[in-house]
Specification:
Elements lengths: L1 H19 L6 H33 L23
GO cellular component, one term: membrane
Subcellular location: Membrane
Protein name: Small integral membrane protein 22 isoform X2
């Protein structure tokens, strides 16, 4: 019952702030909300860039900058190439 009462109290406080027209009581509340929105926007932008990269990468053909060499064994030492 305590959890239900706490949730109800919190919901009433939030609804009361929304009804009053002033959801933020201080400048710190406003600053914290703006920082949260910037963080959320950054995350969404990064997700959009990842999705765009995945979609474009699968449909676009990229040319390799250097031809791929096939060697039967060993490791290429790229420092020796001119």
């Amino acid at each position: 019952m305590d959890l239900a009462e706490e949730l109800e109290t919190t919901a009433q406080e939030v609804l009361g702030k929304l009804r009053s027209g002033e959801p933020f009581q201080s400048n710190w509340d406003t600053a914290a909300f703006i920082i949260f929105l910037i963080f959320l926007g950054t995350v969404l932008l990064l997700m959009l860039l990842v999705c765009t990269h995945c979609c474009c990468h699968s449909s676009c053909s990229r040319r390799a900058s250097r031809p791929q060499k096939v060697h039967p064994r060993g490791v290429d030492n790229l420092a020796l190439e001119p």
